[in-house]
């Protein structure tokens, strides 16, 4: 897996870049034009889950299917305890039975392929190094 | 905590927005101009940890201190098992003893304040809903 780099570009704000020209700003919640750390965690889950279902959905609905997704998190005493991922897909071209089948198979793909979701669920060891 | 929304804007790519005008694209690793889900998880950790140390560092080094950070992840059999967060801070104005003291107190703040890091370590329940 690739690594990311962050640089402090103003008080309370870091600019994050990867090796492929993407950039974002992370700051406290509610700062215009930036994501909070909690939102980036949600973005990781929304991306991972949605992309895991991509092949299945494109196969049944065509390459140009319409979909949107949200993630909501529940926090208790300073811990994020639950993340609820909801994917809304336009399946208007399918009958009820085909829709049910596609939903079940997409959910199965997400469970199997989304390593971010499984890793977060399982727990990830985190280490901190601070260097002068 | 605020929630985020993602819309499928092209095959294999979702555009993620929050309520404060920030936007990013998530896709498979290596797609120009986009972050992968794993990179967004790293970005969540780098932001959370760095911002948790902000007040401590600004107090000792001034509002305009220079810092950069990285996160590297270790993956085994489809699970992200370890995230190594490294923060590099310019402490040239401090003597060795003051540097050691600041590093220790910043690390303590990160452990105490960074809820994303603690939540990931602890494990987060994740649920999926797919709707037509």
From TrEMBL, chains A, B:
Highest rank taxon of the organism: Bacteria
InterPro entries in the cross-refs: KH_dom-like_a/b (IPR015946), OsmC/Ohr_fam (IPR003718), OsmC/Ohrsf (IPR036102)
Protein name, UniProt field: Osmotically inducible protein C
Organism of this sequence: Corynebacterium glutamicum (strain ATCC 13032 / DSM 20300 / JCM 1318 / BCRC 11384 / CCUG 27702 / LMG 3730 / NBRC 12168 / NCIMB 10025 / NRRL B-2784 / 534)
Biological classification of the source: Bacteria, Bacillati, Actinomycetota, Actinomycetes, Mycobacteriales
């Amino acid at each position: 897996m690739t690594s990311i780099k962050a640089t402090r570009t103003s008080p309370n704000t870091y600019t994050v870049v990867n090796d492929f020209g993407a950039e974002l700003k992370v700051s406290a919640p509610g700062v215009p034009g930036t994501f909070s750390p909690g939102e980036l965690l949600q973005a990781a889950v929304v991306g991972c889950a949605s992309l895991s279902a991509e092949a299945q959905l494109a196969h049944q609905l065509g390459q140009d299917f319409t979909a949107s997704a949200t993630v909501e998190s529940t926090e208790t005493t300073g811990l994020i305890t639950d993340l609820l991922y909801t994917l809304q897909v336009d399946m208007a071209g399918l009958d009820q039975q085909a829709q049910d089948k596609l939903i079940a198979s997409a959910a199965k793909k997400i469970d199997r392929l989304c390593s971010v979701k499984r890793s977060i669920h399982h727990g990830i060891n985190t280490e901190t190094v601070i260097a002068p």
